[in-house]
Design goal:
The structure is a single chain. Helix 6 links the parallel strand 5 and strand 6. With 429 residues, the chain is an alpha/beta fold. Helices cover 37% and strands 19% of the residues. The radius of gyration is 22 Å and the shape is globular. The strands form 4 sheets. It has a 7-stranded parallel sheet, with helices on both faces. The chain has a 5-stranded mixed sheet with strand order 9-10-8-11-12. A two-stranded antiparallel sheet has the order 13-14. It holds the Pfam family NAD_binding_3. InterPro entries: Asp/hSer_DH_NAD-bd (IPR005106), DRL_cat (IPR048423), NAD(P)-bd_dom_sf (IPR036291), SAF (IPR013974).
Length: 429
């Protein structure tokens, strides 16, 4: 089989292209549009966002002429536009997911409930779905993956996101027969459980990012969510609630991630974790019981063993998403998916003392952060998944700062799509 780059060139030679429908034109979406405009055999044919001026600016910044951008919410007009080789800007998500001329949908919204709804509609429309929305994936991904398989389409996470990059290392090591001890990522900033949009505002302004999104990185939620996705894809589990989160250099990690009786920090092998001090980057700690393999690894300057590190020092976020689009369309393969079902759960933990009547404001907000548990522990505690947290959820009894929230602690008003899918998932598995 030709490599993806050669297959894309061949598509273009045949006068064809993979037509992408993008939902969400924030930083991730804009970057993806620009990258795809540089590629062969692929184009973002339609984009939906609350503001069409943002979409227009994204296309023009990528080199698309203004007259080639048609703003419409009418599906017939949009389909005609795509056939003419132009691109569509729309505020109608449902229209973009239903467009016959679109082959693959990419969700770049970052909103769990919206992401779940987008994936559901995409699969119902018999299209491949690429999720940049890891929060939705860890909440209802097993159900969506099962639905996609039954519909003969691909449900996948994205290359460039850290879970996807970790999966590349895992697949490489697993195919070669190495024992995989640990999978992990670097954390970019010091853990601050109290981070919120106000405390993150100044740095967010300097970086041109969303304060709520930045707070979700600082309070650890994003790290927990990402390693949750890896757990569901591989069957690996957090060694303890919240993971260890040690500090160390790349060179030190093979010794850090050893069993406690061997001088390391682990109670178990096949774990997921994160490290302060190696960001940006993702890693796999691998081992072998074969003398010749260890001799060769030593010769190749991989270290003295028995553990070795595979380290990737970069991830290009949405700029790599087109790789997952191409794999889904050309090879019917996922970059990463919850093949092992719900192995772990990122549960809502009180960021401050919560009182009856308080509304939970979502990921990166003022009320909760996420803590990664194995699924059995989370279920035994009746813990509330972080992906179900939104302003429709109201606290009905006091919860102390640092305590996990349970389903018994809250009540849900106006049941959202992700809540309905989660309920269906729990009945199905």
């Amino acid at each position: 089989m030709l490599g993806l780059n050669r297959q894309l060139v061949q598509l273009e030679k045949e006068g064809k292209e993979i037509k992408v429908g993008l939902i969400g034109c924030g930083q991730m979406g804009r970057g993806m549009i620009a990258q795809i405009e540089s590629m062969k055999g692929m184009r973002v044919a339609a984009t939906a966002d609350l503001r069409t001026d943002i979409i227009q600016n994204a296309y023009m910044s990528a080199g698309v002429e203004p007259q080639q951008i048609v703003t419409t919410n009418d599906i017939e007009t949009a389909e005609r536009t795509i056939k003419e080789g132009k691109v569509v800007a729309s505020t109608d998500v449902s229209m973009v997911t239903a467009l016959p001329g679109v082959d693959v949908i990419v969700d770049a919204t970052g909103v769990p409930n919206l992401g779940a709804e987008i994936a559901w509609k995409t699969i119902m429309n018999k299209k491949h779905i690429v999720m940049l929305n890891v929060e939705a994936d860890i909440t209802v991904g097993p159900l969506l993956h099962q639905m996609a398989t039954a519909s003969n389409v691909v449900y996948t996470g994205s290359a460039g996101d850290e879970p996807g990059c970790i999966m590349e290392l895992y697949d490489f090591a697993d195919a070669l027969g190495f024992e995989i001890v640990a999978l992990g990522k670097g954390k970019n900033n010091a853990l601050n459980y109290e981070a919120n949009p106000d405390t993150a505002a100044t740095e967010a302004k300097e970086k041109g990012s969303n304060p709520k999104m930045l707070a979700s990185f600082q309070d650890g939620t994003k790290t927990m969510v990402e390693m949750n996705a890896v757990a569901n894809a591989t069957g690996f589990l957090p060694d303890k609630p919240g993971m260890h989160g040690p500090s160390g250099t790349v060179k030190e990690l093979p010794d850090i991630f050893r069993l406690q009786e061997e001088g390391g920090i682990l109670s178990n092998k096949k774990i997921v974790d994160y490290v302060n001090g190696v960001a940006p980057g993702v890693f796999a700690i691998i081992s072998s019981d074969k003398e010749e393999v260890n001799h060769e690894m030593n010769y190749l300057k991989m270290g003295p063993g028995p553990n070795y590190i595979l380290f990737r020092p970069y991830h290009l976020t949405s700029l790599e998403t087109p790789i997952s689009v191409a794999r889904a369309y050309l090879q019917q393969e996922a970059t990463i998916a919850p093949w092992y079902g719900l192995q772990a759960e990122t549960v809502a933990t009180a960021k401050k003392d919560l009182q009856p009547g308080d509304r939970l404001d979502g990921i990166g907000g003022f009320t909760v952060y996420g803590t990664l548990y194995n699924q059995a522990e989370a279920k035994a505690a009746n813990a509330l998944p972080i992906g179900l947290v939104d302003p429709n959820v109201i606290v009905k009894r006091a919860v102390k700062k640092g305590e996990i929230l349970t389903y018994d602690d809250i009540e849900q008003q106006n049941e959202s799509t992700i809540w309905k899918l989660r309920s269906l998932q729990e009945k199905s598995f």
